[in-house]
Protein 1
Amino acid sequence: MKKKMLKVFTFGEFAIYKEDKKIESFKSRKAMELFKFLLLNKNKKVPLLDIYDIFWPGFDDESARLNLNTTLYYIRKQLDISSEELGIKEDYCLFSMKDIYIDFEEFLKLYDEAFKEKEINRRLFLLLKASSLYKGDLFDENVYDEWVRDQKEYFKRLYIDVLLEIGYLYEQLKDKIDAQYYLQKAFYYSQREDAWLSLIRIYENNHEKDKAISLFNQYKEFFGYNEYPVSQKNVNYSTLETPNIERNGNVLSLDLFNIILDLERLKRDKDYVMIELKLKKKVDKSILDKFCEQIRREDVIYFGGDELKIIFRGIKDVKESREVVVKKVSDFFNEEKIEFSIINVE
């Protein structure tokens, strides 16, 4: 007898379907929450002590193991999962079901395929498909649970990357309406700096100066400042020239770069690395374009011909990552046979 296929939807409202029939309720709330946790750790050997700490804190190991065994039994029975696919193995728990569709796995697959795709229309198709899966944040109802927090933020970040890339692709295809729609969506959903800068840029490119200024002022208000704190001078947006921002949103004018740097410095938890280089001679834009391909959307650059500054943002472990990013930058310029010196790292 063929096993029934499970379909699990984790973005927005959590839902499980068995052979296209929705499972309306779980045996227990604990069983549902444990199953969510195991979905995020599919094919991983999760130490039993980690599960005890999350779902049965304060219980002794024997009591916690008994509760875990009972809860796993409820999950297996309700979802028609075998003990080989879900169970306790020595000192860890393993969920390794094959006949299951999980929307976040499909999202990751489309994301990876899209950002490797060079052909613009195919890339756009894959990204639009990925964006359609994101119905809301991962396990939207688990707002305060720490076991899902990092993954929730991770997928949200990928989703914003997808929206921004769709906007950039529509720009290349000269579709201003759809480009603006997706960049606006990215900004209002996240208010991430790269989304903000991209939206200001498209307003300026579309000759909507009032909207650009309004958005700039909203952003200042959001951070609670009358004026932006910048390193050299306060920037008056009404007199600022159109920012030197490339299509990918990475390359900024010096003023805008300093805005981002100072905002990063004001954060309570530092999650950035800034590198400043002096090149022995000026290089052309082709080198800059090539370098931009090596960094992420959220990273920003100021390029002054023989001067280069980069902020790598959203880094989880700054202490361990400093050497990695410095090496990454150094390796690039060494491979290009460009002499340079690193002036500052922070």
Protein 2
Amino acid sequence: MSRSEMRSPPVVASIASDSSTDDIVHAIVSAVATATDQSVVDIDPPLYDCLDPDALGRVIETAENAVVEFRHAGCAVTVDSDGTVTADPVARGGTADRSDDSPPLS
């Protein structure tokens, strides 16, 4: 496997059960930035271009056993209603190298 195909380990973050939508968005962006070794301001495209954060917040805040999965900025992202956010880098050249491979959440 070439260096460009190597994957970094997933980054896992936690959010409190009473987290706001902004807290959830911050956890996602921070996890993706860490997983892809870039600054939160350098993530492209911005998270808001990939999904509706308010819709995500409503799902996570109101559903008892919700899991939302999507691709963003080179990561497979999972947000679980138990407060777990996981950003798992997708290997370059893999099937989902870009976040625009996933339809927007709305």
